[in-house]
Write a structure and sequence with these properties.
about 450 residues; alpha/beta; seven-stranded mixed β-sheet; four-stranded mixed β-sheet; about 35% helix; binds pyridoxal-5'-phosphate; PyrdxlP-dep_Trfase; transaminase activity; PyrdxlP-dep_Trfase_small
Length: about 450
């Protein structure tokens, strides 16, 4: 085989050569089709090969693709910021554009610290997060992330930010109902603030629904609201990382809206451009921007390609598409159908421990025993085995960490494009069944 100069995720791994994509399907160069049940990395939210997006891309490219944001603004960037402000419907009015989710959360961290500096509180620097979380791969973002495997190698370089428990009710160690457990987990934030001192803390960051670090852990009602309340009471900023959940994925434009909460800062990425181009955003409320506007008027955090017109035009076309086709509502409907069908499979497949999620962000956690919730033995490497079987059977699923330590559990995320029809959901389920039968045969 010809040597490849391209570094792949697993060195020496074999990856199909992509040919093209259409709707929820991807095709490799041998002609094999794959149902994209994960939207890539939970990103291709409007599906593949949408002509309207290609047209917007071509139009912008034929005018101008790149200008430096310190030298020019553009219609595309202005309109995209306005579109985000109108879609999020509230005080989240100011967008700062970057190129990846990691940059968006790292920018949020820096803006939170700056917000306090502008008010003569420079000692407010710490960020509290949860020990099951993923906010990105760059050092600042990773410092806030509770993802043991991704942190391990760089632990000495990371800030030792404080963490609190995730609302992982499936593995709740106490005999309490979900609401009570949610409150207990949220109240850990207050305990941490009292222990460290609010005068040292800039912000709390969390994903409304935990993605890669927990396979779609949806918090109990009351939890997200309580976190916001604690942040307000103790005067620290509340950052919602909606890189995975944003723009319709969970059945609402913002997942935070499921609980009527407006964060001070929100980060977007992934579905913001549906994967058609790299772009992400850190979005702030008036409250956050006011001291900065009155103070230094400057956010030090841009990148060379921040707010480039090409990416902004593409993202704008994607957000218009999501709005026009009501994809958030559609995701709520198809997601509820898929979750119900997947839960029904727990009877057939004893290794399905839990099916959870909201909208089209769905997690499946695998276990050895449904009653005791004992994880499958590590040697089975269930997550990777199921992904591999998925590739063989023409269905793409996404890995997620699970288990109380984020390592011993096995889980996948099912997150097809929000455009998926009910008929295509049945096709997804039928391919997944083939994978599960093959996995069961391996376990036997
Ligand atoms: N935040 C969340 C919630 C994510 O799920 C991810 C990526 O999976 C990131 C941040 C980092 O985004 P990126 O991979 O675009 O840097």
């Amino acid at each position: 085989m010809k040597r490849s100069s391209l570094i792949k995720p697993v060195l020496g791994g074999v990856y199909p050569m992509i040919s093209h994509g259409k709707g929820i399907f991807l095709y490799d160069q041998t002609g094999k089709d794959y149902l994209d049940a994960s939207s890539g990395a939970v990103t291709a939210n409007i599906g593949h090969g949408v002509q309207k997006i290609n047209e917007a891309m071509l139009k912008q490219a034929s005018e101008v693709s790149y200008v430096y944001r310190s030298q020019f603004t553009s219609e595309a960037a202005e309109q995209l910021a306005d579109k985000i402000a109108s879609l999020t419907k509230g005080d989240l009015q100011y967008s700062f554009f970057v190129n990846s989710g990691s940059e968006a959360t790292e920018t949020a961290l820096k803006i939170a610290i700056q917000y306090w500096q502008e008010q003569n509180k420079p000692q407010k620097q710490k960020i509290i997060s949860r020990w099951m979380s993923y906010h990105g791969i760059t050092l600042g973002a990773l410092s806030m992330s509770g993802h043991p495997i991704r942190r391990e190698r760089f632990s000495t370089l990371l800030e030792s930010y404080p963490t609190i428990s995730p609302p992982y009710y499936y593995r709740c160690p106490y005999n309490v109902d979900d609401y009570t457990y949610g409150q207990m987990c949220a109240n850990e934030l207050e305990t941490a603030i009292r222990r460290i001192g609010a005068d040292q803390i800039a912000a709390f960051i969390a994903e409304p629904i935990i993605g890669a670090a927990g396979a779609a852990i949806v918090p109990p009602d009351g939890y997200w609201e309580r976190l916001k309340q604690i942040c307000v009471e103790h005067d620290i900023l509340f950052i919602a990382d909606e890189v995975m959940t944003g723009f319709g994925r969970t059945g609402k434009i913002l997942a935070s809206k499921h609980w009527g909460v407006e964060p001070d800062i929100v980060t977007f990425g992934k579905g913001m451009s549906g994967g058609y181009t790299p772009i992400a955003a850190t979005v702030m409320t008036d409250k956050v921007m006011e001291p900065i506007m009155k103070g230094s008027k400057l956010i030090i955090g841009g990148h060379t390609l921040s707010a480039n017109p090409l990416s902004c035009a593409v993202s704008l076309a994607v957000l218009n598409y999501i709005e026009k086709h009501n994809l958030a509502d559609r995701a709520a409907e198809t997601g509820a159908y898929l979750i119900k069908q997947l839960q029904a499979r727990q009877e057939r497949f004893s290794f399905i421990g839990d099916v959870r999620g909201k909208g089209l962000l769905i997690g499946i956690e695998f276990v050895q025993n449904q009653q005791t919730k004992e994880p499958l033995p590590k040697r089975i490497d269930a997550t990777n085995e199921i992904i591999k079987l998925g590739m063989q059977h023409g269905i793409i699923v996404y890995p997620a960490a699970a288990g109380l330590d984020g390592v011993t559990g096995a889980a996948i995320i099912i997150a097809p494009p929000l455009t998926i029809s009910l008929g295509e959901c049945d096709e997804l389920l039928s391919r997944l069944d083939q994978v599960f039968y093959a996995f069961r045969a391996k376990l036997a």
